[in-house]
Design brief:
alpha/beta, globular, two-stranded antiparallel sheet, Spore Coat Polysaccharide Biosynthesis Protein SpsA, Chain A, single chain
Amino acid sequence: MRRSKQLAGFILAGGQSSRMGRDKALLEFAGVSLLVRTARLLEPRVASVTVIGPPERYAALRLRVVPDDQPGVGPLGGIATALRLSSPEWNLLVGCDLPYLTGEWLDWLIGRALASKADALVPETERGLEPLCAIYHRGCAPALAASLARGVRKVTDAVAGLALERVTPAEWKPFDVDGALFKNMNTPADYEEARARLGGEAAR
């Protein structure tokens, strides 16, 4: 792995975790919160890591946390905030509830982005696009901000107008040994499943 100065990392953690019943970003694996675990996965690969979410909620974690410009409008607001803040050309955006991300996958995705001329690189699954594990060029910030201003709230609707480079299943599945790469952790059952799968494994 090699840290890229052309890339900033952002973790979106502004949700309410209503289905989990408690803040899923603070749930622990081997004594480390999922948010810190995700930050550690990103840190060796990007110029900086920033959490987009309520600073008071995560103050004890000693991470850089910046509030969402438009809290309550969903992850699209967090993405727009991240791109407004960013200095590097490329920005890795991940949700705080993706426990199965791997360094190998992120290394591949980053390398692909740095050679791309697209606005964004977004994995595509049988469910559709996965825009909360994707890389966005800083130049698409105005388009996403304009979508928000028009009342768009779904990230997939907002990115539909960008010059997307879709990462196909044939490309990402070699990095998805357990079939869970993009699986969200939304419920207590999801958390128990992730603990059983990951055990004491640390982020790499």
